[in-house]
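Dear colleagues,

For the upcoming journal club I promised to circulate an example of a predicted protein-ligand complex. I picked one with flavin-adenine dinucleotide because it came up in last month's discussion. The inputs are reproduced below in full, followed by the predicted structure.
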Amino acid sequence: MNSGQKIVVIGSGIGGLVSGLILAKHGYQVQVLEKNHQIGGSLQVFSRDKKIFDTGVHYVGGLDKGENLYRIFKYLEIYDDLDMKRLDENAFDIVRLANGVTASHGIGYANFGNHLKASFPENKEDIDKIVQEIQLYCTYFPLYNIELESEINYVEHNEVLEVGAWEHLADLTDNEDLIKVILGSGPLYAGLKGVTPFYVVALILNSFIKGSYRFVNGGSQIAKLLMKKIAENGGEVLRRKEVVSANFNESGNIQSLVCSDGSQYACDFVISNMHPKETIHLLGRDRFKTAYANRVSALPNTIASFMIYLSLHENTLPYFNSNYYDYYTDNIWDDEFHFSESWPQMTFTSAQVSKNTKEYAESISVMCYLDFNEFKTWKDSVRTIVKEGVREDEYETFKKMCEERILNRLEERFPGIKSKVKNSYSSTPITYRDYVSTPEGSMYGIQKDFKHTNRTQINTKTHIPNLFLTGQNIIFHGILGATIGALVTSFNFVNNKQVIEKIKMYD
Ligand SMILES: Cc1cc2nc3c(=O)[nH]c(=O)nc-3n(C[C@H](O)[C@H](O)[C@H](O)COP(=O)(O)OP(=O)(O)OC[C@H]3O[C@@H](n4cnc5c(N)ncnc54)[C@H](O)[C@@H]3O)c2cc1C
């Protein structure tokens, strides 16, 4: 492939923007087409009562000097302009179980281990073993460690993909509460017993142990900086451009992409940042091998979420520099998060970092699992800034009821909080489906399953010769996962050794 050729990226999520930027830096002509008014996918923010709210990303790991995401962001030339706040060294996450057991996750392995040992003094040896296992599993993934090859790797040792997280921890300790507090940040990856692989937990937890940060006034700054760098390298990111179809040439290559406003974008190559299932749907099932299209379409996706955004009365709640994972059920990794009398069974609570005040929290966001099916009555309606659809009053009533339930739960764990809330807003699984186009509002796309490792692996190459995939479904999700996935996508076009060598310079 020659630089100078034109690459059109569908979608401006972190995966689309990072692959677009790497290719623009290598001389490709890059155009990113984004359907929304705002770029960034799950990095989008919104503002109410003059306060900013993150919709998806609340904190990101691997950002301490010398760590994987730090090095990649340095290479992309965005790191120095990021306005971040490092989370509490001793408690970036706090997990509170239904039985009253509480534990903190500290930054740095020694700190992480010591905080767990403070809560579980009887299990010091188990904790050491678990911490070692987390670190060991991370060594099997060369790219995660900014290497192209490693002596031990998951390709030659496929068995590391086939170990269940809950199951593995149960082999390492008999203390179920210890397992629960370690896996208590499971909503970061929608952890499930019998499904979620240990490597997913290891890669994600390790990254947060190695430097967890919030973004001042929201994570959208990452997307904005990437867009700026794409422009500096001769590319462009166009908003309100929903790709609805494609024109193909005789050899089955995509010649141009067609947007809902009738505009067309000629291309030599296309990178889709959409969910693979949606990509197949958009470009036509008959363009892909039937077995592939069937497999991808049938893969289960991670659960969706309901978010409540609380705008607080001024100077009433001191800013807290930790995330809280609160459980109201003993079955923390079981599939019991559907709407019921006891919903929500889990809340994830995070304070927004604001430029205006350091001492107090201006606003907080709370995430709960919620299945898309609870909203299926409204599944045919669409409502975004670009597509201003309407939903009946029943939808708003249901949302308000969910908000009320969550506020009652919060009051149990943050006594007095209700009196500090000025206004509340919320988003549902349908909101996420509309804004990000993941099937049924799934938070993290395809659910990784240690029992079916091959099935859930998505290649960046497709049956359409000039179509490539990127985004959270390639390697793993999250800002780190989708960024590493974008590296893999870009390696179809650029010399991987050269890119890795450059990234490695930032240590
Ligand atoms: C509620 C929630 C909380 C999260 N919290 C965290 C967190 O704290 N930390 C973390 O690291 N990660 C978090 N994540 C995960 C992380 O945000 C995602 O894994 C990551 O942002 C996904 O990036 P992506 O590249 O796959 O693209 P996405 O963000 O999925 O974006 C895809 C883009 O494609 C666009 N698009 C789709 N169809 C079309 C079309 N036809 N034409 C044009 N454009 C189109 C969409 O509008 C969207 O902008 C969270 C996710 C959610 C939902």
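Two points we might discuss: The pocket of flavin-adenine dinucleotide is lined by residues 10-16, 33-36, 41-43, 56-60, 242-243, 273-274, 282, 305, 367, 432, 436-438, 443-444, 471-472, 477-479, 482 (CB under 6 Å). The first strand starts at residue 6 and ends at 10.

See you all on Thursday,
B. R.
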